[in-house]
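U., I forgot to send this yesterday:
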Amino acid sequence: MMGEIVRHPNELYPLMKLLVIAKRAEKETPSQPHLRFCYLLLRKISRSFSLVIQQLPLQLRDAVCVFYLVLRALDTVEDDTSIATQVKVPILIAFHRHIYDHEWHFSCGINACKDLMDQFHHVSSAFLGLGKNYQEVIEDITMRMGEGMAKFVNKEIETIDDYEEYCHYVAGLAGLGLSKLFHASGKEDLAPDSLPNAVGLFLQKTNIIRDYLEDINEVPKCRMYWPHQIWSKYVYKLEDLKLEENSAKAVQCLNDMVTNALSHVEDCLVCLSTLRDPAIFRSCAIPQVMAIGTLAMCYNNIKVFRGVVKMRRGLTAKVFDQTRTMADVYDAFSHVSCILKSKVENNDPNATNTLKRIEAIMRTCSDSGTLYKRNKPNYIPTLAVFFFVIVAILLPYLSAKRT
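Result:
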């Protein structure tokens, strides 16, 4: 981390601010045992989503936290390749009923997700403490998602249509559910289904692209989410993309996948532009800005097939700090689109299509009329950066000396 700060000193200030926000969120953890478990576990499963959710108004915050954990538990069952199909499918289909059962639990998953499944009664109890309007949304989305996941347990993702359908079930419905929770809170209008669906698809496709190596190396059985219609143009088997001798073809296939994901960006921007409540807006906008940033890092990058590609913590902190208005979002998407455009090589088989998608995004951002009206954040003076670095280095040492 210190190496990152030295190389990117302008990220130190937002990183320090984010650490303060995280500490404050920890102090504001609810005292009720079931909700407390939910928030603590959410922090372990996804610190970034935890911080985003903590920004929401109180009652809505609890509903979104529980909604996230319910869907994460459902996803844990789906992802565990060691569970036999005849066991997994009934659980997925009945999951919307299990959330009403104080005693239900099912041991699967690893690390924090295993804790979630082993102690699911805390989530059920927190769910039953929510308002009826929130419960109905969570139950409906969980039922539809479970049925969709069950459909794909033994179904390969062959075509791009299959890919769209699968991503709708596992993420588009989550976007739709959030839209309905926002509406149930009385703070937002109900968006047309196609818009929150696009928001979910964009996030899911970004994750599927980034997590290729983790999914393909899953034991006892690999997980394959890239559609056959795309990867079969480049290799005989999906796992062949990670082989050294297929590096050139792997990158071409990767760029094809990124281009497909970019098709959702314009709908995502429309969806974000309809949100009125500042806290709700930030909770949706920050993940979208991180997604386009992650896609730009993955594009034309062989490292996707060699390890983990993700945004630096300092850069994530900058996104969190600087994503406050729709103008910020347009600016971020325009900036990242320029980076993406610079990485497109003429000899890539998808170059023309990729450039069309990127230019459409840039045009949407430009047409907003906000790109040249923003006040850019001031840089942090070098002396202040130096001071914060010294404090960051010495603080653990001084704390140890006191004890």
